[in-house]
Design brief:
By secondary structure, the protein is of the alpha+beta class. The strands form two sheets. It has a three-stranded antiparallel beta sheet with strand order 1-2-3, covered by helices on one side. The chain has a three-stranded antiparallel beta sheet with strand order 4-6-5, covered by helices on one side. It has helices at residues 48-62, 77-85; strands spanning 6-11, 17-25, 33-39, 67-72, 89-94, 102-108.
Length: 114
């Protein structure tokens, strides 16, 4: 079990749960790591997905993950916008991991010069 990978609840200050954020290997891949989010519709539009995804991406990069992917259903403008706010680059549409055509986004770990 790799401690970098998991699924977490996105808790709000009032202790309710807005949804989940995940950081895990993509299925049928060769070690590619996915960040993903699923929020209740009442919690859309508040920045929770961006904040939660940024936290798990930063955690993954700190643990040595070199790059992170997001897979989004075509037309899901809200999640595509989250990818943009995270600084992810769109790399095209593929059926590689989930056997359905998805928009693929990539974020490389920052290069640290010492």
């Amino acid at each position: 079990l790799d401690e970098r990978h998991s699924c977490w609840a996105i808790e709000l200050p009032d202790t309710s749960v807005a949804g989940t954020v995940l950081f895990k290997p993509l299925p049928n891949g060769v070690g590619e790591i996915e960040v993903g989010w699923h929020l209740h519709p009442d919690c859309w539009g508040h920045g929770y997905a961006t904040e939660a995804a940024r936290a798990v991406i930063d955690r993954g990069f700190a643990a040595g993950v070199p790059e992170v992917y997001a897979v989004v259903r075509p037309g899901n403008r809200a999640s595509i916008a989250v990818c943009g706010r995270l600084g992810m680059q769109e790399i095209g549409r593929f059926r590689r991991w989930y056997d359905v055509e998805l928009e693929i986004f990539l974020l490389m770990a920052p290069v640290i010069v010492e």
